[in-house]
Design a protein that fits this description.
The complex is a heterodimer of chains A (279) and B (273). Chain A is mainly alpha-helical. In chain A, 77% of the residues lie in helices and 0% in strands. Chain A is globular. In chain B, 72% of the residues lie in helices and 3% in strands. Classes of the chains: A mainly alpha (279), B mainly alpha (273).
C-alpha cells in the first residue's frame, strides 16, 4: 500500500513534468487554430514552420554560433584546465574563483555587463558579439569538465613519456590529451547544449537582424500562442530525446564492455547526466 | 612551464568577465552631467523609492514561495526514488532530467497553452463540469512556471546526497530504538542538509532573477527585479539605474550564498559537480 502511494506520487510528478510537453505536441497536429477544439489531424503547421524564413535563419544562426562557440571554448578551456592543474596556491585559488563567476552570477547580470562592454567599446552588436558572449559563458563549463579528468591522471605518465624520449609537446599531444579526451568531449557537448539553450545572454548581446532560435521563440510567444511554435517544440523534443537515448545506449554498451574487459576501469560519465550528476 | 597555456584564458576572462563587471560598478556609481560622468549614489537612493522596493519585495516573495514549494514537492520525491519503491533508478532519474533538455522558453510557453482561457486545463475542467481556472497573468501562474522549470534543480542534488547516505547508519539508528520519524529527523534529514542547501540555492537564484517567466506567464505589466533591469537597458536606456539594481542583485545573491554556506557541510561541491 505504501509502495503504491509512493509510486503514485512519482507518477503524478511525471504527469506534471510531461503534460505541458505532451499537450504542446498533440496540438501541433491540430487542424483548428483554437486550442479548445480538435479540428482533425494535420501537418500544415510543420509545413509553415519550414517555410518560415525568420525561424529557419535563426536556426541557422543558432547552430553556427553553437558550434563555433563550443569549439573555441573547448580549445581555450582545455588549455586553461591544463594550466590551472599545474599551478598552485593563491594563483590557483584566484583563477578558480574567477572561473566560477559566470557560473554563479545571475545570467541577466552577465548579459548586461557584456552588453555594456560591447557598446562601450563600440563593437557593433551582432554575430561577433553573440559569439564572444557565448564563448565567455561556455569556457568555465569546459574547464570544470576537464579538470576532474586531469586529477584522475597518473602523475608519472607525463614524466614517463619524457623519459622515453618524447618532447614536451609530443608528451602533451600523444599522452595527456588522449587520456583526458572524455572530459574534453563532455565539456564540448555541454558547451554546445548551453549555447543552443541560451536566451538571456543572447537577448542582450545581439543586434538588429541577428536572432537565435530562443530569441525568435520569445518574440513569437510574447504575441500569444502560435501553432508553429508547437511544431517546433515537437521537433526539438524528439531530437533531444533521440540524442539522449543514443548517448545512454552507448554508455550502457561501453560499461558492459568494460565490465567484461578490465575490471575496475573508471566509469565514464555521460555528458547528459553531467550537470546534475555526482561525478 | 605548462602554466603558460592558461594565458589566453586569463586574458579572455579579464576582458570579458572582470572588465564588464567593473563597468557595471562604474555606471552604478556615476550619473551623467554636462562635464561627463560624476560620482554619485543617486542610482542607489532611487532604488529605495516605494515603487521599486515593491518590485524587490515581490521578487523575493515569489522566489521564496516557489523555492519552498519545490522543496516540499522535491524532498519526498527524492526520498522515494532513493528508496526501494522502484527498481530501475537510473531510468527514473533520466525521466526527471529529460524535460530539462527542452528549450527553457518552450517549456514556459507550454504553460501558456495549458492555462489560457480556452486552454487545455479549462477544456478539461468544463468537461468535468468543474469551475474554470483563470490564473494566467497572475502571481500563481508565475509561481507555477518557476516550480515547473526549477523543480529538477531541487530534486537532483537532494537525490544525489540521499543516495550516498550509508544504509548501515539508518539501520543502526533503528537498532538503537529510534522510530522511523526519529530516524528521519535526527539522522536522514541532517545528513541530507548539504543537498537541501544546494537545491535551495539552485532554485532561489534563478527564480529571483528571472525575467522570462514573469514576462510570458505574468503578462506585460508584471514586473520583477529582472524585468526592471531589462527595461532600464533595453527600453529606458538608463544604464546607471540598471547597473545599480544589478549591483544590489549581486549583493543579495552573495548574501544568500553566505547564509547558505553557513548551513552547508564540507561537501559543498557535491550537487553542482
Amino acid at each position: 500500500m505504501v509502495r503504491f502511494l509512493k509510486r503514485s506520487y512519482i507518477y503524478l510528478l511525471f504527469v506534471f513534468l510531461y503534460m505541458p510537453i505532451a499537450v504542446l505536441m498533440v496540438y501541433s497536429f491540430n487542424d483548428s487554430r483554437s486550442r479548445g477544439t480538435w479540428g482533425g489531424f494535420t501537418l500544415k503547421w510543420y509545413g509553415s514552420l519550414f517555410r518560415d524564413r525568420t525561424i529557419m535563419s535563426s536556426l541557422y544562426s543558432t547552430l553556427i554560433i553553437g558550434v563555433s562557440a563550443a569549439l573555441i571554448a573547448t580549445v581555450i578551456g582545455t588549455m586553461a584546465a591544463i594550466g590551472i592543474h599545474n599551478s598552485r596556491g593563491f594563483l590557483k585559488k584566484l583563477i578558480m574563483n574567477i572561473t566560477y563567476i559566470p557560473v554563479l552570477n545571475p545570467e541577466i547580470v552577465t548579459a548586461i555587463s557584456l552588453m555594456i562592454l560591447f557598446v562601450f567599446a563600440r563593437v557593433r552588436l551582432g554575430y561577433l558579439t553573440l559569439l564572444l558572449a557565448h564563448i565567455t559563458f561556455n569556457i568555465p563549463y569546459v574547464i570544470l569538465s576537464v579538470l576532474p579528468k586531469l586529477r584522475q591522471l597518473n602523475k608519472h605518465l607525463y614524466e614517463a613519456a619524457l623519459d622515453l624520449g618524447s618532447t614536451p609537446a609530443q608528451a602533451l599531444w600523444k599522452v595527456i590529451i588522449p587520456e583526458i579526451m572524455p572530459g574534453i568531449i563532455t565539456g564540448m557537448l555541454l558547451a554546445f547544449t548551453l549555447s543552443i539553450d541560451d536566451f538571456v545572454v543572447s537577448f542582450f548581446t545581439t543586434g538588429s537582424g541577428v536572432s537565435t532560435l530562443s530569441i525568435t521563440i520569445f518574440s513569437m510567444a510574447r504575441q500569444g500562442i502560435n501553432p508553429k511554435i508547437n511544431a517546433l517544440s515537437t521537433i526539438m523534443f524528439v531530437f533531444v530525446l533521440a540524442l539522449l537515448i543514443i548517448v545512454n545506449v552507448r554508455q550502457a554498451r561501453d560499461e558492459k564492455k568494460e565490465r567484461n574487459g578490465k575490471i575496475g576501469a573508471k566509469k565514464q560519465v555521460s555528458p547528459y547526466a553531467l550537470e546534475f550528476g555526482d561525478s | 612551464m605548462r602554466r603558460q597555456s592558461m594565458m589566453p584564458y586569463l586574458a579572455w576572462m579579464l576582458l570579458f568577465i572582470i572588465v564588464p563587471l567593473l563597468l557595471v560598478v562604474y555606471y552604478a556609481f556615476t550619473i551623467p552631467s554636462e562635464t561627463g560622468n560624476v560620482w554619485s549614489l543617486e542610482n542607489f537612493t532611487r532604488f529605495f523609492e516605494p515603487i521599486y522596493l515593491k518590485v524587490l519585495w515581490r521578487s523575493v516573495y515569489l522566489a521564496v514561495l516557489s523555492t519552498m514549494i519545490c522543496l516540499l514537492l522535491g524532498y519526498p520525491a527524492a526520498m522515494i526514488m532513493v528508496g526501494n519503491a522502484f527498481t530501475r533508478k537510473s531510468a527514473l532519474m533520466l525521466l526527471f532530467v529529460v524535460p530539462m533538455w527542452m528549450n527553457f522558453l518552450l517549456r514556459t510557453y507550454a504553460w501558456l497553452t495549458l492555462l489560457e482561457r480556452n486552454g487545455f486545463i479549462n477544456v478539461l475542467l468544463s468537461a468535468l463540469r468543474l469551475p474554470r481556472l483563470n490564473i494566467l497573468y497572475t502571481n500563481s501562474a508565475v509561481i507555477l512556471g518557476m516550480v515547473y522549470n526549477f523543480l529538477p534543480f531541487m530534486v537532483l542534488p537532494i537525490y544525489s546526497v540521499l543516495s550516498k547516505i550509508d544504509k548501515d547508519v539508518i539501520e543502526a539508528a533503528g537498532d538503537l530504538g529510534a522510530n522511523s520519524l526519529k530516524v528521519f529527523m535526527k539522522v536522514v534529514f541532517p545528513l541530507s542538509l548539504p543537498g537541501v542547501v544546494s537545491g535551495i540555492t539552485m532554485v532561489f537564484m534563478p527564480a529571483l532573477t528571472t525575467f522570462v517567466i514573469s514576462r510570458l506567464l505574468g503578462g506585460g505589466q508584471f514586473t520583477l527585479v529582472g524585468n526592471l533591469i531589462e527595461q532600464q537597458f533595453l527600453v529606458v536606456g538608463d544604464w546607471g539605474f540598471g547597473s545599480a539594481i544589478s549591483v544590489i542583485m549581486i549583493l543579495l545573491i552573495l548574501l544568500s550564498m553566505a547564509i547558505m554556506s553557513f548551513f552547508e557541510g564540507e561537501e559543498s561541491e557535491v550537487a553542482l559537480w
